[in-house]
């Protein structure tokens, strides 16, 4: 469980919000001969097409990220918030735009583990004292950027 997060050096935090069901996070076992690891992935869907969003997506194409997600299943408070890419980060593996999407998705951005840079564990839980305190800690990261 991660109970504190500090941004390193010139690292910035950004908050990406969208419809509740616009996010899909997953982890998949990568079976190795001697050691196994996990590929982390998050798909984020954006429904608007602003210039600010386009600029942000262009930057995402070349960066390395960790993603903090809030699960829809909130039955167990200490596992509601998870962090993907804690060890090696995530990179953009797909950025899709389809102007004819029937669901109104303007962009689908996929961040995932790079081949050979998988994680040793499934996504880590982020929790400090309470869910409210955890969310406050995450909001403070974004406000500091």
Principal-axes geometry comes out as: globular
Percent of residues in helical segments?
A: 10-25%
Low-confidence stretches: none
Q: How many β-strands, per DSSP?
A: 7
Radius of gyration: 16 Å
Q: Estimate the strand proportion.
A: 25-35%
- Mean pLDDT equals 92
Strand order of the largest sheet: 1-2-6-5
Distance between the termini: 24 Å
Continuous helix count: 2
Which class best fits the helix and strand makeup? alpha+beta
- Would you list the SSEs in sequence order as H and E? EEHEEEEEH
Largest sheet: 4 strands, antiparallel
Question: Helix and strand layout, with pairings?
Answer:
Blueprint lengths: L22 E8 L6 E10 L4 H10 L6 E4 L10 E4 L6 E7 L9 E6 L11 E2 L5 H14 L1
Antiparallel strand pairs: 1-2, 2-6, 3-4, 4-7, 5-6
Describe this structure in words.
- The chain is α+β, with helices and mostly antiparallel strands.
- Helices cover 17% and strands 28% of the residues.
- The protein is built from two helices and seven strands.
- The strands form two sheets. It has a four-stranded antiparallel sheet with strand order 1-2-6-5, with no helix packed on it.
